[in-house]
Specification:
Shape: globular
Number of helices: 4
InterPro entries: DUF6905
Number of strands: 0
Largest sheet: none
Order of helices and strands: HHHH
Keywords: Membrane, Transmembrane, Transmembrane helix
Radius of gyration: 15 Å
Oligomer: single chain
């Protein structure tokens, strides 16, 4: 993997949890459950298109990489650095890894 591919992959992996932490909660607070659906469409859809659909950000090289890995790891690190409950976060991180693996496996079958 080349250095530009490494940098763009890391940037793509950073963008998704950053936007989740920054925007999702505010949309749910302001608009209720419909805000959660809108956040899912806008945040997940936009970052997926940027990272995978356009094809210039994330350079996985055929590995089983799903956006759940980036979301789980990024949100865990952000929560740990802000002083949240780390053991509870480890459980969520584990399930994000499992979900990412299942998602990557399903996508590899297509």
């Amino acid at each position: 993997m080349t250095l530009p591919a490494i940098i763009t992959t890391m940037a793509g992996g950073f963008i998704f949890p950053f936007l989740l932490r920054l925007i999702w909660g505010k949309m749910c607070e302001d608009w209720g459950s419909i805000g959660g659906y809108m956040a899912a469409g806008f945040i997940v859809g936009t970052t997926w298109t940027l990272n995978h659909g356009v094809g210039f950000m994330v350079q996985s090289g055929g590995a089983w990489i799903d956006m759940a890995f980036a979301a789980g790891a990024g949100l865990f690190v952000a929560s740990a650095l802000s002083g949240d409950n780390v053991p509870k976060g480890l459980t969520n991180l584990l399930f994000a890894i499992i979900g990412g693996t299942i998602g990557g496996f399903i996508l590899s079958l297509l």
